[in-house]
């Protein structure tokens, strides 16, 4: 799957089990997202205590025509201690062949689909054998179970080690106007260099952009509000626009079951921030001007 197949804004399902949507409402939500141009939906096997993939799969089963209109992203590699996985004794990371193959089969069953468009390793496994992982990726791809692969929350050397053995298409990382580590540690530079468009989780700082009373949140919110008045856009839309301004061409991941929240994210595609506007937000977040 070419990375261009994903939509520029991605719908995140991390908390979908808390949205209170029955199956018909889930179908409507997916259709509304598709109507806005959001065709990619981000999962992980562990979301909702191993329940959210099935939550989504029930909607796909109720409206079979949806599957060909969207892309499914999911993640695996975290072993949670949970009743749904009675064999897990402690929380750990697992990139072994057996775990990856079993995780993909579990996800395919839960999602009611025959393929995963993009599979990500959820966290760096300190015991990862990159040659074995690459071989497992080739097995999954040859079987048609997974079309493309990436990583999530990986540092540049970890991504590079695996990318040399099997082509990856993304690194899904935390990034927002309140969390800029990826700008400082080389993660976004690497994505730009390799042409791997990153996926950005928690792009609104987990809600701190709107309600945080700490000094950083208040400084950033004031700048976003001023830019919002200038561009006729909401704080959320300007925050998304700030992320989209980066040359790595990131794909922010939403986290809401509200269609209005999806609409605010998509509106950012039409908000052109200047370099000075971008640096105003950076300065507010960091608390100082560039050196």
Can you put this structure into words, describing what you see?
This protein is α/β, with parallel strands linked by helices and 291 residues long. It has a domain at 3-169: NADP-dependent oxidoreductase domain (TIM Barrel). Helices cover 44% and strands 12% of the residues. The protein has 13 helices and ten strands. The protein has helices at 23-35, 47-50, 52-62, 97-111, 130-142, 156-163, 181-184, 187-194, 208-211, 215-231, 235-244, 259-267, 275-286, and strands spanning 10-12, 40-42, 71-76, 78-79, 92-93, 118-121, 149-152, 171-174, 199-201, 251-254. The strands form two sheets. The protein has an eight-stranded parallel barrel. Strand 1 (10-12), helix 1 and strand 2 form a beta-alpha-beta unit. Helix 4 packs parallel to helix 5. It is globular and about 50 Å long. 42% of the residues are buried.
